From TrEMBL:
<keyword id="KW-0456">Lyase</keyword>
<dbReference type="InterPro" id="IPR045186">
    <property type="entry name" value="Indole-3-glycerol_P_synth"/>
</dbReference>
<dbReference type="Pfam" id="PF00218">
    <property type="entry name" value="IGPS"/>
</dbReference>
<feature type="domain" description="Indole-3-glycerol phosphate synthase">
    <location>
        <begin position="4"/>
        <end position="254"/>
    </location>
</feature>
<dbReference type="InterPro" id="IPR013798">
    <property type="entry name" value="Indole-3-glycerol_P_synth_dom"/>
</dbReference>
<comment type="similarity">
    <text>Belongs to the TrpC family.</text>
</comment>
<dbReference type="GO" id="GO:0004425">
    <property type="term" value="F:indole-3-glycerol-phosphate synthase activity"/>
</dbReference>
<keyword id="KW-0057">Aromatic amino acid biosynthesis</keyword>
<keyword id="KW-0822">Tryptophan biosynthesis</keyword>
<dbReference type="InterPro" id="IPR011060">
    <property type="entry name" value="RibuloseP-bd_barrel"/>
</dbReference>
<dbReference type="InterPro" id="IPR013785">
    <property type="entry name" value="Aldolase_TIM"/>
</dbReference>
<comment type="pathway">
    <text>Amino-acid biosynthesis; L-tryptophan biosynthesis; L-tryptophan from chorismate: step 4/5.</text>
</comment>
<protein>
    <recommendedName>
        <fullName>Indole-3-glycerol phosphate synthase</fullName>
        <ecNumber>4.1.1.48</ecNumber>
    </recommendedName>
</protein>
<keyword id="KW-0028">Amino-acid biosynthesis</keyword>
<keyword id="KW-0210">Decarboxylase</keyword>
């Protein structure tokens, strides 16, 4: 069993527990549930830089990245830097995140927020909406074609955008459908953790033009982005590169200015 399989098993148990404690009606009565969401796909299309900056404390591959910042400091720094959107990791066990991080981020900034999570159930999409997210992530590696379809359509009904993450040709082919807004290529193999920009380059021509193309993981230089732009990528998700510094917002500002 690889790390991704373990995460999904834990996530399914976690969702069952959460459902038993917090009813859907409570999520639907959240102050954020009725708010109009902000479109990340539109912002990426209009941007010359396309940075989606990530709040991430740790990861299975790197253990601790940074526990020194408050969520507010990080996300405000990202917004001031000119990021198009912010990805907030909400998984607790493997990434040290929580839904409270999403809530605090929403209270602090006015740009699109992605709930970065291993989504296996509609309940998690309701949670995302209730905690102020504008879009959700679906990971093709852990979902069937039918699950991607039903979860993405459910998200769209709630007014949330959908970023679908793929890693290879097979995942892409089973996933292309009208209920997606953005297709992200993860440059990190979630099973082995090896990183290569070649994954983004190889899949670029297979992604239909109606979807905004996003490259995720392993982007640590301005050169990497300049290398990927000719392939049609409009969004670049960067987390570790900013979070591992003493000032994530400052690091993002310098990076975006260089671009």
């Amino acid at each position: 069993m690889n790390i991704l399989d373990k995460i999904i098993v834990d996530k399914q148990r976690e969702v069952v527990l959460k459902k038993s404690i917090i009813p859907i009606s409570q999520l639907e009565s959240s102050v954020f549930f009725g708010r109009e969401t902000i479109s990340l796909s539109q912002k990426l299309k209009a941007s010359s830089t396309g940075i989606i900056a990530e709040h991430k404390r740790r990861s299975p591959s790197k253990s601790v990245i940074n526990h020194g910042f408050t969520v507010e400091e990080v996300v405000k720094g990202y917004e001031d830097a000119g990021a198009c959107g912010i990805s907030v990791l909400t998984d607790g066990k493997y990434f040290g995140g929580s839904l409270d991080d999403l809530l605090l981020a929403r209270a602090s900034v006015n740009i699109p927020l992605l709930r970065k999570e291993f989504i296996v159930d509609e309940y998690q999409i309701l949670e995302a909406k209730a905690h102020g997210a504008d879009l959700i992530l679906l990971i093709a590696a852990v979902l069937t074609h039918e699950e991607i379809k039903s979860l993405s359509e459910f998200a769209k009904k709630l007014g949330l955008e959908v970023l679908l993450e793929v890693h290879n040709q097979e995942e892409l082919e089973k996933s292309i459908m009208p209920s997606l807004d953005m297709i992200g290529v993860n440059n990190r193999n979630l099973k082995t953790f090896e990183v290569s920009l070649d994954f983004s380059k190889e899949l670029a021509s297979q992604i239909p033009d109606e979807f905004v193309k996003v490259s995720e993981s392993g982007i640590s230089s301005v050169e990497a982005i300049q290398e990927l732009k000719p392939y049609g990528y409009k969004g670049f998700l960067i987390g570790e590169n900013f979070m591992k510094t003493d000032n994530a917002g400052q690091a993002a500002t310098e990076f975006i200015n260089q671009l």
